[in-house]
Design brief:
This protein is of the alpha+beta class and 313 residues long. The protein has helices at 12-19, 32-39, 49-58, 93-107, 137-140, 156-170, 173-180, 213-221, 233-239, 257-273; strands at 22-25, 66-76, 81-85, 113-118, 121-126, 188-195, 208-209, 226-227, 245-246, 278-282, 287-292. The chain has 10 helices and 11 strands. The strands form 3 sheets. Strands 2, 3, 4, 5 and 6 form a 5-stranded antiparallel beta sheet that branches. A 3-stranded antiparallel beta sheet has the order 1-11-10, covered by helices on one side. A 3-stranded parallel beta sheet has the order 8-7-9. Strand 2 and strand 3 (81-85) form a beta hairpin. Helix 3 packs across helix 8 and helix 4 (93-107) crosses helix 6 (156-170). The radius of gyration is 21 Å and the shape is globular. The relative contact order is 0.22.
């Protein structure tokens, strides 16, 4: 679900209903996949996330070592840098193509590395594994990137390669155009999720309704059933009456409150009818709420502070 804290769930009756469940907040930001898998009884993979994303994007498993290569903007401050992730629609495909063609001409001189761009995503193939960040730019967004980068001797190849890429991006034509238009420049490439995708196996997992390529890739690795995201959750229930995982697309702007209200109303109705006995909601601001059908009778519970409006100083 989209972010749900600090008054984003506008309807008072829905706040009261959700507060009858078990609201909580994760201590640190995690990939959405890492929050979903424990809820369905699966261990979280620590390596090969780029390979899973490639698998979910193409439908084909690659046995090659690869890392995700995502454009980012690094903002300098007096004593540190701050990373800014780009939304998928912030960089035109033509610009991505031009950027990675240029970068490939640089790394192509070193036979160890090669870039591959597929639609809005790019990947680094390497004949030898290198250390990479374990998290995507969306997790590091707004933070000092050093908190998430590999360190020590193992980081030498990573740091050398990223430095070369940053030099190539510094005066690139795409960045000159972006700067003249008042847009953030693409001044670094974030390498993350390095590894090899796991072999496909047969593992019990609920049907999935999602367009997220990383999550779809994991489901493919388990031979799970995958469907495109459906805004009408009743449609998902009809296809998977025993239960399912549904991942709403990440909104590029503020989600209209009526859409949030409609999704919650649909889930509340499903629980009230007894079509499902419990629902676990994972919001994109680290809020999570597990609510069971019988929780409707916990009417004495007050509204959780996590769902209330922010208090003005």
């Amino acid at each position: 679900m989209p972010p749900g804290r600090h008054g984003r769930i506008a309807r008072p009756d829905q706040r009261r209903w959700l507060s009858r469940g078990r609201p909580g907040v994760s201590e640190s930001a995690e990939e959405l996949l890492a929050r979903i898998l424990p809820a369905v009884g699966h261990a979280v993979p620590r390596h090969g996330l780029a390979g899973l994303r490639f698998w979910g994007q193409t439908g084909e498993r690659s046995g090659a070592w690869m890392a995700a290569a995502d454009p980012v903007h690094l903002e300098p401050h007096l004593s540190h840098l701050r990373l800014h992730a780009f939304q998928m629609d912030e960089i035109p495909r033509a610009d991505l193509r031009e950027l990675f063609e240029s970068l490939q001409s640089i790394v192509g001189e070193d036979e160890q590395f090669a870039f591959a761009r597929l639609g809005p995503f790019a990947y680094l193939d390497s004949k030898q594994p290198i250390a990479t960040s374990a998290v995507s730019p969306s997790i590091a967004d707004g933070c000092d990137p050093g908190e998430f980068l590999p360190v020590g001797e193992a980081a030498r190849d990573h740091d050398r390669l990223v430095a070369e890429l940053q030099m190539a991006l510094h005066d690139h034509a795409v960045n000159r155009s972006r700067e003249s238009s008042g847009k953030r420049t693409i001044n670094s490439i974030w390498l993350w999720g390095g590894g090899t995708a796991p072999e496909q196996s047969e593992q019990p997992i609920p049907p999935l309704f999602s367009d997220d390529p990383l999550i779809r890739g994991y489901w493919l690795s388990c031979s799970g059933t995958g469907h495109a995201w459906r805004e009408n959750l009743e449609d998902a229930l009809n296809l998977a009456p025993e239960g399912f995982v549904a991942v709403a697309p990440e909104a590029t702007g503020a989600l209209p409150q009526e859409i949030m209200a409609e999704r919650l109303a649909s889930l509340r109705g499903i629980l009230k009818r007894g079509d499902l006995m419990s629902v676990t909601l994972l919001f994109r601001d680290e809020l999570s709420i597990e609510i069971r059908r019988r929780d409707a009778f916990r009417f004495w519970r007050s509204v959780s502070p996590l769902l209330m409006e922010p208090i003005d100083d």
